[in-house]
Amino acid sequence: MSHADENISKRDRLIQVAMDLFAFQGYGNTGLAQIAREAEMLPGSLYHFFPTKEDLLAATLQTRLRLLQSEVLDPIWDRIDDPIERIFGLLDGYRRMLAMTEFGHGCPIGNLAIELSETHPKIRPLLAANFDNWIRAVAQCFREAADRLPPDADPEQLARFVLITMEGAVMLARTYRNFAAYDDAVTTLRDYVERLIRSGTGDDPPRGRGAASRASESG
Amino acid sequence: MSHADENISKRDRLIQVAMDLFAFQGYGNTGLAQIAREAEMLPGSLYHFFPTKEDLLAATLQTRLRLLQSEVLDPIWDRIDDPIERIFGLLDGYRRMLAMTEFGHGCPIGNLAIELSETHPKIRPLLAANFDNWIRAVAQCFREAADRLPPDADPEQLARFVLITMEGAVMLARTYRNFAAYDDAVTTLRDYVERLIRSGTGDDPPRGRGAASRASESG
């Protein structure tokens, strides 16, 4: 391994360790000494790669941005073809993360957003970029299912709502240490999406074309 | 003022100051020295009332529990009669809080839930009790609007969903430092509630009584 390769792998190791620690313990509770120790490096080499803890945090958020597709989405997208079911598969992924970590974390970006958006203004755009990335992927699913949705359904708006539901549901699951609220939220979101799909032929049920055509079907 | 009264007022002052600081700065970032200073008391008297910082935190969460009705709900309930509109009035209240604090905080319980649910297991039940209290109030609104909702609509489940939406929406507003995602979430939630109300006479639109009766209205 060349010196350059070795440096890349050391840097990656630091980022990997920091990502995990920030997700589990929070940013404030994680010291650089612990990161260096768990990466089996001397603190001096850590400072060589990342002069400040915030530099390291920024690098972890850049990495998460890059890895969303390959690490989070692809394993689900490979397993599920239907774009709407992909969204619920993704929500199930966060549920698994909560279960695996015994509610230690569900969404690492959400945790950091609450902890840092006030105190670390320079980090905020990177948190927002991670949310944007996620929203873009889910909006793409809604776009692929557009023929089932009402014509005025806004894929971006729906995707933001899915993210908001997930983040709120993770918060309640972590507080209650059970899945009741999380599962309820997914059920309610599914009910909403199904109502959108049922009215997807056009106007809303009570007035106009949609209700009339459905009534003639049932009559 | 008797000695006993004076003690109550000192204790309340400490709780009030701590509530504000925990909400704005987080629990970890707030020191007892700062709380004593801002309450204009000596650190020694603080320890007299609250031997540990966690005792003080618990007292703030007990206080929030007690004040939900009078401080948060009543000002909105007094202004708005319609139970569904009360819910959206409440969501507007959190939006105002975000605006007033320049996104410094939206929901103090949500912040603390993310910060502390992992590290402070003894505090978790008090956070959950605050969520429960809120959910109970919103479920009561849905219950009062039951004649407009489908018969299988679960007021508790809907109320939990409103809380989840609010908490997720506050998180995104604080990260983006704007109201776009928050307002979108409220619009989407309202669309969902309106769809529930439109199908509230009975079964869901495409099949059965609901669609038929509505079609005969429009025909």
Structure summarized in a few sentences:
2 copies of one chain form a homodimer. The first copy, chain A, has 219 residues and is mainly alpha-helical.
SSE topology:
Two copies of one chain form a homodimer.
Chain A: H1 3-25, H2 32-38, H3 43-49, H4 53-77, H5 83-100, H6 108-116, H7 124-144, H8 155-176, H9 180-198, H10 208-218
Descriptive account of the structure:
Two copies of one chain form a homodimer. Chain A is mainly alpha-helical and 219 residues long. Chain A folds into two domains: 1-51, Arc Repressor Mutant, subunit A (Orthogonal Bundle); 63-202, Tetracycline Repressor, domain 2, CATH 1.10.357.10. Chain A has ten helices and no strands. In chain A, helix 5 (83-100) runs parallel beside helix 8, helix 7 packs across helix 8 (155-176) and helix 8 packs antiparallel against helix 9. Chain A is elongated, with a radius of gyration of 21 Å. Residues 202-219 of chain A have low confidence and may be disordered. At the A-B interface, helix 6, helix 7, helix 8, helix 9 and helix 10 of A face helix 6, helix 7, helix 8, helix 9 and helix 10 of B.
Overview features:
homodimer; 219 residues; mainly alpha; Arc Repressor Mutant, subunit A; Tetracycline Repressor, domain 2; 2 domains; 74% helix; 0% strand; elongated
Rg calc of chain A: 21 Å
CATH homologous superfamily caption of the largest domain in chain A? Tetracycline Repressor, domain 2
- Catalogue the unreliable spans of chain A: 202-219
SS element count, helices of chain A: 10
- The portion of residues assigned to helices of chain A is over 70%
- Whole-number total of structural domains of chain A: 2
Structural class computed from helices and strand pairing of chain A:
mainly alpha
Largest interchain contact: A-B, 60 and 61 residues
What number is the mean pLDDT of chain A?
Answer: 89
What's the number of extended β-strand segments of chain A? 0
| Oligomer category | homodimer
CATH architecture tag of the largest domain in chain A: Orthogonal Bundle
- CATH fold group of the largest domain in chain A: Tetracycline Repressor, domain 2
Describe the global form of chain A. elongated
Briefly, what CATH class of the largest domain in chain A?
A: Mainly Alpha
Strand count, sense and barrel status of the largest sheet of chain A are: none
Give the terminus-to-terminus CA distance of chain A.
75 Å
Give the strand content of chain A: under 5%
